[in-house]
Design brief:
mainly alpha
């Protein structure tokens, strides 16, 4: 049997590099959005309308597909049963298209009432009409998202991570080009009524083309898996019951998340200053950058190994994969939180300064405060990404579902309460803080569920690593904020240098503090990520 010195760390490194580029492209896309469409009535309406297809997809199928594709395929692939993998993948893709096509049609039919529900309280006139027209163009995205997530799961189950990580990058480039063309066509319309049909279509059609690219490029690496997918409605024996259980779990958790998203959209447009929806989106983009670059690659690369280890009843391999991955997620995300807080103000200036929006200094302050309010939830959100996958890999669905659904429902309650308690000008802060509260509770709950189901050994040493990382992040935050106060001001270009410089200081201070507090534990995490994976060795020996 050939040795394969490729553990979670090696796969995660590849995913991290490409995902970081993709997240930077997404960050750049939203930066272009901020400096082209901007914090305007058109911007708020576009963000609200463009969120709807994703919400509907996640509620109907997104959570189900994300939770079940990899576990359903990893065992068959690891044991060399390619026919079983082909039949399972074919059925998943067929059912996805059959379910989501009518959903897309229904979204188009209900475009007007949905727009009315989201935007009727907006202070922007004609927002409901513009939102309805955009929803007609955005409706096909629902099917495309479904196809994309199934193809992504198939590729990840085969250990092919580059294509799924690269697809968002290409999509972001396409959408950013659409924003630029829109700006060249429309300028900065002061109201929705000033928007021409040509400019509107550049914005809406260009965005949907980006989703076509997101799904379509995955067909290229799919050929390398050797699977020949055919339309099929029947699953292999024993697969359908697991599909149903994990589908229920995925639908419930993502439905709860999308309820939180809908509430946030509604509150951002309910009496808050114009542009609040865009500010919330931009702050969320900053939040998702370290999450996507640090937590997602680790969770994604570990998922197939966790599923295959459990399928082979290899608890030792399962725990040896989960333990260091959890430690790495905590270290990376806590340092990411420190960086977010430290660079919030110059990051906000990158988005806002020079865009021509009224009261740019006030807008910059509001955006920076919203970014800071998101930061405390980063590590917990990273745990949600990893531990839900770890529990789905064990075939568990009730326990992680209750943990995550509870967290999102708490987010809804916190959003409503904080929106009522804080001034309207702080609505973005209220929504971001509510998000942090909810995901922190969900992350803690998932830790207890994981220990109960997989044993204390599965997270052995993680508490020590996490505590040291929290102290390191606190020290780094103080250093970063101090530097940010001294090194303040300047145009948007200068702010880029400040973000990079302050971010580097945060990383260095965090690393030095970790070496003082937990050198051995940190080393154990790094060694665990480099551990050769026995399941992957078996895949290599049977291929």
């Amino acid at each position: 049997m050939p040795a394969v010195a490729k553990g979670v760390g090696a796969a995660a490194a590849l995913i991290a590099v490409i995902t970081l580029l993709a997240r930077l492209a997404g960050f750049g896309r939203n930066l272009v959005f901020a400096r082209t469409v901007g914090t305007t009535c058109v911007g708020d309406t576009y963000v609200a309308a463009n969120t709807v297809p994703n919400i509907i997809f996640e509620i109907v199928a997104g959570g189900a597909l994300a939770s079940l594709v990899v576990p359903m395929l990893s065992g068959a692939i690891a044991s060399g049963d390619h026919e079983r993998a082909r039949r399972t993948a074919s059925s998943l893709l067929t059912w996805t298209i059959l379910i989501l096509l009518p959903v897309s049609g229904l979204l188009a039919l209900l475009a007007r009432p949905l727009s009315q529900a989201l935007l009727s309280s907006s202070s922007c006139s004609e927002a409901v009409e513009l939102g309805a027209r955009m929803l007609l163009v955005f409706a096909p995205q629902v099917v495309l998202y479904g196809v994309g997530i199934v193809l992504t799961g198939i590729l990840q189950a085969h250990g092919r991570f580059a294509g799924p990580a690269l697809a968002p990058l290409l999509s972001s480039v396409v959408v950013a080009v659409a924003y630029l063309l829109y700006r060249l066509s429309a300028g900065v319309p002061e109201s929705v009524e000033e928007l021409s049909t040509e400019s509107e279509l550049l914005l809406s059609v260009g965005t949907s083309v980006g989703v076509v690219v997101l799904a379509g490029v995955l067909l290229i690496p799919l050929r390398g898996t050797g699977l020949r997918l055919r339309p099929s409605l029947g699953f292999p024996v024993g697969v359908a019951p697991r599909v149903r259980r994990l589908a229920v779990a995925g639908i419930a958790t993502l439905a709860a998340q999308q309820v939180a998203v809908v509430v946030a959209i509604r509150l951002a447009n309910d009496g808050a200053p114009p542009g609040t929806q865009v500010l919330y989106l931009l702050a969320m983009t900053v939040f998702l950058l370290p999450w996507g670059a640090l937590a997602v690659p680790l969770a994604t690369s570990a998922f197939p190994q966790l599923a295959a280890s459990y399928e082979h009843a290899d608890e030792a391999s399962y725990r040896a994969t989960l333990r260091p991955t959890t430690g790495a997620v905590l270290i990376g995300c806590l340092v990411g939180s420190a960086a977010m807080i430290s660079v919030a103000e110059p990051t906000a200036r990158i988005f806002v300064q020079g865009t021509g929006v009224p009261d740019s200094e006030l807008t910059t302050t509001r955006l920076a405060e919203t970014i800071v309010a998101f930061a405390p939830g980063l590590a917990a959100y990273g745990l949600v990404a990893l531990l839900t996958r770890a529990l789905y890999a064990r075939g568990l669905w009730k326990e992680p579902t209750w943990a995550v659904v509870g967290g999102w429902l708490l987010t809804v309650a916190a959003d409503i309460g904080l929106a009522a308690a804080l001034p309207d000008t702080s609505r973005g802060v209220a929504l971001a803080a509510g998000h942090s509260i909810g995901v922190i509770v969900a992350g803690i709950a998932l830790i207890f569920v994981t220990v109960h189901s997989a044993g204390r050994e599965s997270l052995g040493g993680v508490a020590r690593v996490g505590a040291a990382a929290l102290v390191a992040a606190t020290v780094a935050t103080m250093a970063g904020r101090l530097l940010a106060e001294v090194w303040d001001g300047g145009a948007a270009i200068a702010a880029v240098t400040q973000v990079l410089g302050i971010g580097a200081v945060v990383v260095l201070v965090s690393g030095a503090t970790m070496m003082v507090l937990a050198r051995a534990a940190t080393g154990a995490v790094l060694r665990g990520l480099r551990r050769p994976d026995p399941v992957q060795e078996e895949v290599q020996s049977t291929s």
